[in-house]
Write a structure and sequence with these properties.
The structure is a homodimer. By secondary structure, chain A is mainly alpha-helical. The first copy, chain A, contains 10 helices and no strands. Chain A folds into 2 domains: 65 residues, Homeodomain-like (Arc Repressor Mutant, subunit A); 121 residues, Tetracycline Repressor, domain 2 (Orthogonal Bundle), CATH 1.10.357.10. Chains A, B: Keywords: DNA-binding, Transcription, Transcription regulation.
Chain lengths: 213, 213
């Protein structure tokens, strides 16, 4: 991350620390602004003013406000993974050998993230903007969504090898059976998004709706 | 519909026909404008100008642009149901006795509607606006989404009584297992939204991901 964020900056400890501080301030400013004003009305100038940096600092590191915002969310994910003990910043999907328990743990944690008052507004604003702007949507999927879906795919593939997922099931479709309903309930606010719902989804998806004859 | 759309208008055949023509023109204008300019930049004035009516005509029938748009989508749904032979405008969920076949037919038809170039842009614009505006989102759910989800619930409940859905499954959760992934793929454009995907979803959801032991 530091390599792309501070190209050409001399790597003395002080300047690295200053860069790191500016980078975090810019992320915080971008997230709070888009949460308050929406994506369309968030500007690089506004982010710079709130972060207390010059706008050239932002332009030096990122090509667009979309890039700043997407990286702010990637950074949030990395921080969450570090807090959860993921080590080098890479998030690992739990594999205790109990597929249902692992999926419930991850979906419950996802529920907690989605309803976190600090990040719900910017996350909704960015998602809504991507829904009507195909280029932004494609970046959102490529940088944020698909990498996280691939973690599920990896776990489901391991489960399939262990005989816990039926042969013939496409893990990439299976992951949508879990993540799709969660996202639908969150985005459209149809009914409360709770841990009990996360558990019910996992049970329904694994057990299937049809009776076992 | 006519009773709420033309309160106080004398019911001579001519004025009814004129009202009906204006109402349809207003819906068409609202859908095309929101598709082109987005929800935030669509105004009652703009809708009136494009529909060729005075803005007082719109204010007489609807309290807000949200109400116009939501009713435009309700009307679209009714037209689609009439075209599909639903008779009095009420859409009926197919019940051939074959749950998988009925679900696949409805999900395939939903795919066709979602990717219809005429309505995809306004539908995305309205959904995205509801994601960041809780009051609009609640109206969207109440008037458009939940009534259509309840049609699935009815079919799934009948299937449960017929022994084709496991006891203990909540039909309202089950419907999200089908509709959630479809909506996720459509809104976020992760992968192609096809009939084959609709079929795979139904098979995965009914059969379950876990092996039948």
């Amino acid at each position: 991350m530091a390599d792309t964020a501070t190209p050409g900056t001399p790597r003395t400890p002080d300047s690295t620390r200053r860069s790191e501080r500016s980078r975090r301030a810019i992320y915080e400013a971008a997230l709070s602004l888009v949460g308050e004003a929406g994506y369309a009305r968030t500007t690089i100038e506004g982010i710079a003013a709130r972060a207390g940096v010059g706008k050239q600092t932002i332009y030096r590191w990122w090509p667009s406000k979309a890039a700043v915002l997407l990286e702010a969310f990637v950074d949030l994910g990395e921080q969450a993974a570090e807090a959860a003990g993921g080590g080098d910043g890479g998030y690992e999907f739990p594999d205790t050998g109990d597929l249902a328990a692992d999926l419930k743990a991850v979906l419950r944690a996802t529920v907690d993230e989605l309803v976190d008052p600090k990040y719900e507004a910017p996350s909704r604003a960015l998602t809504a903007a991507g829904i009507v702007d195909p280029a932004l949507g494609a970046e959102f999927v490529e940088k944020l969504l698909e990498p996280s879906l691939q973690l599920y795919v990896g776990r489901l593939r391991a489960a399939q090898e262990a005989g816990d997922v039926r042969e013939g099931i496409d893990p990439r479709v299976a992951v949508e059976l879990l993540v799709g309903p969660l996202s639908h309930r969150w985005l459209l606010r149809t009914l409360p998004l709770t841990h009990a719902y996360a558990d019910a989804l996992v049970d329904c998806a694994l057990g299937g709706l049809a009776p076992r004859r």
